[in-house]
Q: What sequence folds into this?
């Protein structure tokens, strides 16, 4: 059991004990950020789902509050499932969530704070008229869940989306309401054949003219709308940018080939059931994501806990590519930075590896830039086209190169995070951002897959990555957050003070010049709120 204790994170949000999954109803209210989450108070595996609750003033330091909603009504007795918050212009808060009923039917319920003058939002009232929505004609009793935050149209009517499926087509049903108590089905916002059940749909505007976030109700020029679905079939969060039409209540992707479920993922690692909210305090849109375990259930039971939430990420539009969003850890995480080390212009010859001499590499914030030898890039003619991430040890002309984190001194355990440059014989270059877990742990029963996705690297740009390393989780942001990869790593040796950082270039033909800055990060000391 001792072996498992260090796996707890130092600065990520996680419950004191037991199981957590989806983030629920995040919001900012009277000086506090609130995070609710799917929580099993009795065990480190899923079940008996309640809403756990925590608050923070900076999105980084959290205090646990008592469970806010429990399964205690016929309409949620089998679980108080995922939902979202809507703050009305008069300050009222509407929490709409899915209940799993006594007969295992998925229905939508309304809850609101008992006392709006309590900034802690401790007590929640379930509306006596619940459920407010039951599965419509033609929709399965177990395929109707996870209401979004609502937005209000120029017609003064509120709308929200509930994810579902018909056959194997993922769908997103738009309901309209004036009071959050009675609803009318209005349209199917968007559907994608073959994507299966859409869980935890998220739908919001993204400014294409500025870095600020937009209120969920913003509508008009200067924005695109992002539609996200969590695909139940493969447990991946997929999104696409497109245009929302209020007259037809439909949404059209910018690029049909990159429709929801066919193209971009929010995160190419262990990441699911994410949800955003508009932070009216700092005018930004914040994204939360659930990061599960990739060890065994038996180990989770031994540890007594399972799952983390990502560090909250700010979502902005990538005006340079025009095709994707950028995700970046909230600025507040930088308040945890302590000792730092900087390396400028490290020349990495083909096949080189350098120990960056970090005393204790279990809690780090790393920022690295790489410049690939332009001559080699020009001269290399491809036979090395790969269409995904190969293992970090597989050497090609132009890569991989990157960092090794959670590595012990002797490199018996290591996790490479790296770029691969694939150059086709016609000269086209495709870039990949990857995390290779195959040598992360001596333990045999943990996930060892290689994660990764394509990453746009534009003319004149350096290759860049930011990493947040926290004992058993690594959040990796490629090219300013164009491509993100979250992984769970369970080393047995590269722990605490034995965790080191290396930089490497495994290319055969090109040298790489790198600049790296590494900060150690403080712990947040999660604890219950003292009343
Ligand atoms: N988790 C909740 C559901 C949701 C799923 C149940 C996604 O509402 O669809 O815990 O992880």
A:
């Amino acid at each position: 059991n001792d072996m498992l204790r260090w796996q707890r994170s130092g600065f990520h949000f996680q419950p004191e004990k037991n199981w957590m999954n989806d983030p629920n109803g995040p919001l900012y209210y009277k000086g506090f950020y609130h995070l609710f989450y799917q929580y099993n108070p009795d065990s480190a595996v899923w079940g008996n789902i309640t809403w756990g609750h925590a608050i923070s003033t900076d999105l980084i330091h959290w205090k646990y509050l008592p469970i806010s909603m429990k399964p205690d009504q016929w309409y949620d007795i089998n679980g108080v499932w995922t939902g979202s918050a809507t703050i009305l212009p008069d300050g009222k808060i509407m929490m709409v969530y899915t209940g799993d009923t006594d007969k295992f039917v998925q229905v939508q319920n309304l809850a609101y704070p008992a006392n709006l003058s309590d900034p802690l939002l401790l007590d929640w009232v379930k509306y006596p008229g619940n459920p407010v929505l039951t599965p419509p004609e033609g929709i399965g009793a177990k395929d109707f869940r996870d209401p979004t935050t609502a937005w209000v149209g120029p017609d003064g009517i509120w709308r929200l989306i509930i994810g579902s499926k018909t056959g194997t087509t993922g769908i997103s049903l738009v309901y309209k309401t004036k009071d959050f108590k009675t609803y009318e089905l209005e349209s199917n916002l968007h559907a994608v054949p073959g994507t299966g059940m859409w869980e935890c749909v998220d739908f919001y505007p993204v400014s294409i003219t500025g870095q600020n976030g937009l209120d969920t109700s913003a509508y008009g020029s200067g924005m695109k709308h992002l539609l996200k679905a969590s695909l139940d079939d493969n447990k991946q969060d997929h999104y696409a940018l497109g245009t929302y039409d209020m007259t037809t209540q439909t949404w059209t992707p910018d690029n049909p080939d990159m429709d929801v479920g066919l193209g971009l993922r929010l995160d190419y690692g262990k990441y699911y059931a994410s949800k955003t909210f508009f932070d009216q305090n700092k005018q930004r849109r914040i994204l939360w994501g659930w990061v599960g375990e990739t060890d065994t259930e038996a180990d989770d039971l031994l540890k007594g806990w399972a799952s983390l939430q990502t560090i909250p990420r700010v979502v902005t539009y990538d005006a340079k590519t025009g095709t994707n969003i950028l995700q970046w850890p909230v600025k507040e995480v930088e308040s945890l930075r302590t000792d730092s080390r900087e390396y400028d212009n490290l020349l990495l010859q083909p096949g080189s590896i350098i120990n960056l001499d970090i005393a204790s590499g279990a809690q780090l914030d790393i920022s690295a830039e790489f410049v690939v030898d332009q001559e080699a890039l020009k001269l290399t003619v491809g036979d090395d086209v790969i269409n995904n991430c190969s293992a970090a040890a597989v050497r090609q002309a132009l890569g991989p190169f990157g960092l090794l984190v959670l590595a012990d001194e002797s490199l018996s355990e290591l996790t490479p995070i790296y770029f691969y440059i694939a150059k086709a014989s016609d000269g086209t270059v495709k870039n990949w951002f990857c995390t290779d877990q195959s040598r992360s742990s001596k333990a045999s029963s943990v996930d060892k897959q290689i994660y990764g996705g394509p990453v746009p690297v534009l003319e004149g740009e350096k290759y860049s990555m930011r990493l947040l390393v926290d004992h058993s989780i690594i959040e990796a942001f490629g090219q300013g957050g164009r491509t993100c990869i979250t992984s769970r790593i369970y080393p047995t040796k590269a722990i605490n003070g034995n965790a080191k950082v290396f930089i490497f270039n495994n290319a055969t033909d090109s040298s790489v010049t790198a600049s790296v800055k590494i900060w150690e990060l403080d712990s947040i000391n999660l604890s219950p709120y003292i009343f």
Notes: The CA atoms of residues 78 and 100 lie 5 Å apart. The chain has a mean pLDDT of 96.
